[in-house]
């Protein structure tokens, strides 16, 4: 792979003339049979490819490519991405100057090919010292609408959104955790296309648009985490939502054992949702079919297969708004009762995971305690003599690594603002004096928290993640570098 990169760099690492570029692109089109059209600031190669029949590939077949050298073009890029499979369309974003804008979209003919491209080409050295980033690209067709009156039903919200925007397909509304006759103050509106959703957002976003006399909040909904089909085929855990707060784990286990006694291994309930673990996958699939829509303690439940989280991307998921609930390492659905939750995969219980470890919740702390017998010898110790695996919080990790690198301790500065519904929201700015320079004097996340503890933890996570991305710190922070 390195030799191939080297050869590519030798061929096109130097600046090429317009005539050379044109000749290289014409040769590529002649060789592949693909057409090429430049429009609206992008150059489209294919879409469809020669001999293609039928509709375009479904969602999930496109990947986003970032950090492309500005003087690199399709004649170099297409052969690299063809290694993962047949390209349906390659879209390179272009500047007026003729250089590319540093990123592109590659649509494959199947989801499997797109997943393979991410696997083999993310962090690929496309030229010596130049690494590209490749991740899944999804056209977002869903908007988050906040500050909706809680007494409004799904039909009312759907009809109202159809009146004020075009292309509405569906509305997703979740019942209140404590009062199932009310909604949670927000909804997700699904549109027929990304363009329709973008046009609706443009109309609603100014902040002066009102529904039922209320100024609503509008933003893109965070996309659900994509999990490959092979992984989902191994899942034997069910995600159950819309439970009553009062429903117990024992009740849930008994209900799911009714259709076939003894199939449930354990149940983990968090507020109004739960994870039901089965001994065998076939029993989980059968139970999902039988139990979806059933009533437990008067609440009609929804049951789906739980989505496993890719442990290697936990840090990245967190900063994209994807947070795994509690110790289950699975994606769930919203349970906050305010209008600030935008993700379909972001329960309220914040879990910090570091290097494959997760911070224990209250029940886990109890399980991790050991008896203290009279006569046990205690030895004074400094926390800095421990290993990083002894720390469960990002704030402690950051303090630990500053000490290990002979830096001064991190300094935290607290700021606040008030949300539209009157809540005090907090954020910390982190300064590490020993490494402050002109390019990076402080670290501050782009998300606000309702608690001081949460704000400090988030700021520490953000700082560690940023340090992991910086080449000057990657050797010191191998467990936080983003691959």
UniProtKB/TrEMBL annotation:
Compartments where located: Cytoplasm
Pfam families (UniProt xref): DND1_DSRM, RRM_1
The keyword Lipid biosynthesis is assigned to this record: no
GO cellular component terms, semicolon-separated: cytoplasm; nucleus
PROSITE patterns: RRM
Chain ranges of the RRM domain: 61-139, 141-223, 236-308
Lineage: Eukaryota, Metazoa, Chordata, Craniata, Vertebrata
CDD domains hit by this protein: DSRM_RBM46 (cd19901), RRM1_RBM46 (cd12484), RRM2_RBM46 (cd12492), RRM3_RBM46 (cd12496)
Main location: cytoplasm
Domain of life of the native organism: Eukaryota
PANTHER family to which the protein is assigned, alphabetical: HETEROGENEOUS NUCLEAR RIBONUCLEOPROTEIN
Source organism of the structure: Aquila chrysaetos chrysaetos
The protein's name in its UniProt record: Probable RNA-binding protein 46
């Amino acid at each position: 792979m390195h030799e191939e990169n080297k050869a590519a760099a030798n061929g096109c690492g130097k600046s090429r003339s317009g005539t050379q570029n044109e000749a290289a692109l014409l040769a590529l089109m002649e060789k592949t049979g693909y057409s090429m059209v430049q429009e609206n600031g992008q150059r489209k190669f294919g879409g469809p490819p020669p001999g293609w029949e039928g509709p375009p590939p479904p969602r999930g077949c496109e990947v986003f490519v970032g950090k492309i050298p500005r003087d690199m073009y399709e004649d170099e890029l297409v052969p690299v991405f063809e290694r993962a499979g047949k390209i349906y369309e390659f879209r390179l974003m272009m500047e007026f100057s003729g250089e590319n804008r540093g990123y592109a979209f590659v649509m494959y003919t199947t989801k499997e090919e797109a997943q393979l491209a991410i696997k083999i080409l993310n962090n690929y050295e496309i030229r010596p010292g130049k690494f590209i980033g490749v991740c899944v690209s999804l056209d977002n067709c869903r908007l988050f609408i906040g500050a909706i009156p809680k007494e409004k039903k799904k039909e009312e919200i759907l009809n109202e959104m159809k009146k004020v925007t075009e292309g509405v397909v569906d509305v997703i509304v979740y019942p209140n955790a404590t009062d199932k006759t009310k909604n949670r103050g927000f909804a997700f509106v699904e549109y027929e296309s990304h363009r329709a959703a973008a046009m609706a957002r443009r109309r609603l976003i100014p902040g002066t648009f009102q529904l039922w006399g209320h100024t609503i909040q509008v933003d893109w909904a965070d996309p659900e985490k994509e999990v490959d089909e092979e992984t989902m085929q191994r899942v034997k855990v069910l995600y159950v939502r819309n439970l009553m707060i009062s429903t117990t784990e024992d009740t849930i286990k008994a209900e799911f054992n009714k259709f076939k006694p003894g199939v449930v291994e354990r149940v983990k309930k968090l507020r109004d949702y739960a994870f039901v673990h089965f001994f065998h996958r076939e029993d989980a699939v059968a139970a999902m079919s039988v139990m979806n829509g059933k009533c437990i303690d008067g609440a009609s439940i929804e049951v789906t297969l739980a989505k496993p989280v890719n442990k290697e991307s936990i840090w990245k998921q967190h900063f994209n708004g994807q947070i795994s609930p509690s110790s289950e390492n699975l994606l769930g659905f919203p349970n906050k009762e305010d209008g600030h939750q935008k993700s379909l995969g972001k329960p309220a219980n914040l879990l910090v995971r570091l290097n494959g470890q997760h911070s224990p919740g209250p029940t886990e702390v109890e399980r991790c305690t050991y008896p203290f017998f009279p006569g046990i010898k205690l030895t004074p110790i400094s926390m800095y003599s421990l290993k990083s695996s002894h720390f469960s919080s990002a704030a402690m990790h950051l303090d630990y690594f500053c000490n290990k690198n002979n830096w001064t301790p991190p300094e935290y500065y607290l700021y606040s603002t008030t949300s539209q519904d009157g809540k005090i929201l907090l954020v910390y700015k982190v300064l590490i004096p020993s490494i402050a320079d002109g390019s990076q004097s402080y670290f501050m996340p782009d998300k606000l928290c309702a608690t001081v503890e949460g704000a400090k933890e988030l700021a520490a996570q953000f700082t560690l993640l940023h340090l992991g991305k910086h080449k000057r710190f990657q050797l010191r922070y191998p467990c936080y570098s983003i691959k």
